[in-house]
């Protein structure tokens, strides 16, 4: 709460024993804003440890932006769905418009944003494993590729979905 991450909250994969990597749920469970798409629809895949990777990615985005991931109180319409705003700015090479304490923090924020965007891919098979997330976090920023758009995009002002 209040931007103090509690990783243990994202333990949906703990519902199954260590020798089982996929669990079947009858209803969506988890913290609003962090719930992976496959918890709502099996069209996105099975619930697995990759569901926790999605939640971790959403938490990283909040850390980068110092705000909740879905904030209807924002003043600029294009910023309402925060992951889409971060994705668009990252893809276009724009600054994330955040305040930084030290030189180099913008690069760290960009790296965290790219890793987070990989983690929130709608298709669980396109999300990295947590060991891969760690490798990405330890890698040079230049070696990281911006992922494909991880969600269905919507133009808030026109209502168009792309």
Automatic annotation (TrEMBL):
SUPFAM superfamilies: Protein kinase-like (PK-like). Keywords: Glycoprotein, Kinase, Membrane, Serine/threonine-protein kinase, Signal, Transferase, Transmembrane, Transmembrane helix. One of its GO terms (cellular component) is membrane. InterPro entries: Kinase-like_dom_sf, LRK10/LRL21-25-like, Prot_kinase_dom. Its main location: membrane. It is a single-pass type I membrane protein. Residues 1-152 form the Protein kinase domain. Gene3D superfamilies: Transferase(Phosphotransferase) domain 1. This is Protein kinase domain-containing protein. It comes from Citrus clementina.
């Amino acid at each position: 709460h209040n931007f103090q991450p509690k990783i243990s909250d994202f333990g949906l994969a703990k519902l199954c024993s260590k020798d089982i990597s996929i669990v079947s749920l009858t209803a969506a469970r988890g913290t609003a804003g962090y719930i992976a798409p496959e918890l709502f629809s099996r069209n996105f895949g099975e619930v697995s440890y990759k569901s926790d990777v999605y939640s971790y990615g959403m938490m990283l985005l909040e850390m980068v932006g110092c705000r909740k991931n879905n904030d209807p109180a924002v003043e600029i319409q294009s910023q309402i769905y925060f992951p889409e705003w971060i994705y668009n700015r990252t893809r276009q090479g724009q600054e994330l418009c955040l305040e930084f304490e030290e030189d180099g923090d913008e690069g760290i924020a960009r790296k965290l944003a790219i890793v987070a965007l990989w983690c929130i891919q709608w298709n669980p098979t396109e999300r990295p494993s947590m060991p891969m997330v760690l490798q990405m976090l330890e890698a040079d920023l230049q070696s990281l590729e911006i992922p494909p758009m991880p969600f269905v995009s919507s133009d808030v002002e026109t209502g168009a979905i792309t």
